[in-house]
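Before surveying the methods themselves, we first show a specimen of the format, giving the amino acid sequence and backbone structure tokens:

:::
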Amino acid sequence: MKRILIVGSGDVARRALPWLTRRFRVLALVRQPEAAAELRALGAVPLVADLDDRRSLHRLAGIADAVLHFAPPPQSGAGDPRMARLLAALASRRSLPQGLVYISTTGVYGDCAGARVDETRPCKAQTARGRRRVDAEQRLRRFGRRNRVRVALLRAPGIYAADRLPLERLRRGDPVLAADDDVHTNHIHADDLARIACLALFRALPGRAYNASDDSAMRMGDYFDAVADRFDLLRPPRVARAQIAEKLSPLTLSFMSESRRLDNRRLKRELRLRLRYPTVSDGLRAVTAG
């Protein structure tokens, strides 16, 4: 494996670049030409293309031994046409990538009423956002089987890091659910997710899904309390579910309608992962120490 193509050159991809560029020639797809200079400074070769423009993707065919796919689906619609366009471009030449790693979401499971969830649980996404991810996963599995490409699906929960914390929500005083109504939530530090993606290139089994989650077992309100305490902010007010709808956006409310506890044993056993930040507490301590 010599050449890696990154699709979706955002925060997690940039965290993976230092490890990748020391070992491979890394090609990074960018939508805006002005982002090319930053990626070049990080050691990647930028390629300007747009997942919403089929013609711009032709140049991606046959150029990489493996693909790391970090890009999200569109913000509307029932499926993921971006994934369809990318896979069509990759398959337009006989030289296909050996592997493809996709960062999906644990929203594909839907609401599990707080149950412990491993990767054998059927996908029952209940939001349009989750259904688009299910569509992307299904397209990838079919692509992998049809073309003998080793596909790995990394189902990530809430991603956090120093610059990905709900500090503004806490400063605004946005409420969270009262303890009796609260949901179980799951988390992964962005640095650990980048490492998981890199490990999956080599260690993931074909067509395999992995819960890319840390070891934390928290409710959503407890997570916000932990962030508030670490940054000396007021804890958010707790509000009953019946009253909270008028105070928050529909997107925020959708995250409060699903409850599950992720089982990450497959991640540790098959990818042989040792988390840098095993819990949210570990991650928050590192953030404030830094």
